[in-house]
């Protein structure tokens, strides 16, 4: 009877362990992408203000799957980078929408 006990315990724990590992991988991918976008937004702003187009910025910074937009209001200019990240962990899409949309915004005070 005791020979199969370890196998049964392993089979019970395996799905929980795999869910945790995949969840950590997904969260790591989200945080890594956020850090990369936060580093790239300064370069995007510099290139945008120098007169580059969205296509040139994406090509120069190697940002194929990133959306760049600029919104003007009276006092601030808002620069927005967004990227969609697909969730690989089953069930985690109940917490995060799949694909998860990561949005980085930077507001700059207008001169004048």
Tally of helical runs = 2
Number of E strands:
3
Using only CA atoms, what is the Rg?
21 Å
Silhouette: elongated
Structure characterization notes:
There is one protein chain. The chain has helices at residues 5-49, 54-60; strands at 66-72, 76-85, 100-109. The protein is of the alpha+beta class and 112 residues long. The protein has one domain (2-109). The protein is elongated, with a radius of gyration of 21 Å.
Please render the helix and strand layout as text:
Elements: H1 5-49, H2 54-60, E1 66-72, E2 76-85, E3 100-109
Antiparallel strand pairs: 1-2, 2-3
Brief digest:
By secondary structure, the protein is α+β, with helices and mostly antiparallel strands. The chain has two helices and three strands, in the order ααβββ.
List keywords for this structure.
112 residues; alpha+beta; single chain; 3 strands; 24% strand
């Amino acid at each position: 009877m005791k020979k199969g006990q370890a196998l049964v315990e392993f089979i019970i724990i395996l799905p929980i362990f795999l869910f945790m590992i995949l969840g950590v991988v997904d969260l790591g991918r989200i945080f890594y992408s956020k850090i990369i976008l936060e580093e790239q937004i300064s370069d995007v702003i510099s290139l945008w203000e120098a007169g580059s187009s969205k296509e040139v910025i994406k090509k120069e910074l190697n940002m194929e799957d990133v959306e760049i937009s600029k919104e003007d209001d009276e006092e601030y200019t808002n620069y927005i980078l967004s990227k969609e990240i697909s969730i690989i962990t089953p069930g985690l899409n109940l917490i995060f929408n799949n694909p998860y949309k990561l949005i980085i915004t930077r507001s700059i005070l207008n001169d004048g």
